[in-house]
Structures are given as C-alpha cells and as structure tokens.
Design goal:
Elements lengths: L7 E2 L4 E6 L2 E6 L1 H7 L2 E5 L6 E2 L4 E7 L3 E5 L4 E6 L2 H4 L3 H4 L8 E5 L11 H8 L1
Antiparallel strand pairs: 1-2, 2-3, 3-9, 4-6, 5-8, 6-7, 8-9
C-alpha cells in the first residue's frame, strides 16, 4: 500500500495535498483497492462552498457507490475533467492523474487536524 509522506489524510480515506490556500483532494491507494475497478466519478459541486465532512461527490465502482467527503472547509474550484472519460485513472494513479478536486481552503487551521502518513498507515493497518 502506497502512503506518500508529503500528503495529509482523512479517516474517510481521502488524501490532501496543500499548496498555499489550495488543496488537491483524491482517494487513497487503500480506498481505490477496497473499491475495486472504478467506473464513474461524479462531482457536481464545483463553484460551491462546503464545510468539512460534507459530501462533494461520489465514486462508483463495479460493486458499489461511495460518497466522497470534503476534508476541509472551502470552495470547490476545479474537478479533474480527465476522470469523465477515464475514471480508471483513480485506480491506476490515485495520487497523480487520479486526483479528483481542488479546493480553495477557507480555514487553513483545519489542515492541522488531518492525519499524517504514519497516522493513516496505523489507521488502515
């Protein structure tokens, strides 16, 4: 299982890359492995401001549909349009080409409440 040390994580298996006041968000290698083959990613919240913990979209795998939870308060400013035609990028490159959204962070202090790579690794065992 790949858990890059430069990222932050949530208990809901999302990863967060913070660059200034913008966070890039996707699902972890563990999450994509548990879901199996991903066939559809839906995000209809671009342009909306949501609170941490709110659902920003869904990811559909062959066997299940899972909600995606926003890790930080903020405005969703971009969706990875590549996932419309190639949702398998989430399986193939969860920390790279399979990213899902970019968020303009409203409350930067929330970053401190996210899990480190070591904490996330301990969570998933």
């Amino acid at each position: 299982m790949n858990v890059p040390s430069n990222l932050k994580y949530t208990k809901e298996h999302e990863w967060v890359l913070v660059e200034g006041n913008v966070a890039t968000v996707g699902i972890t290698d563990y999450a994509q492995g548990e879901l199996g083959e991903i066939v559809f990613v839906e995000v209809e919240t671009v342009g909306e401001t949501l609170a941490a913990g709110e659902v920003f979209g869904t990811v559909e795998a062959v066997k299940t549909v899972s909600d995606l939870f926003l890790p930080l308060d903020g405005e969703i400013i971009e969706f990875n349009e590549s996932l419309v035609d190639s949702p398998e990028l989430v399986n193939d490159s969860p920390y790279g080409d399979g990213w899902m959204i970019k968020v303009q962070i409203s409350n930067p202090e929330q970053v401190n409440s996210l899990l480190s790579a070591d904490e996330y690794t301990a969570l998933v065992g």
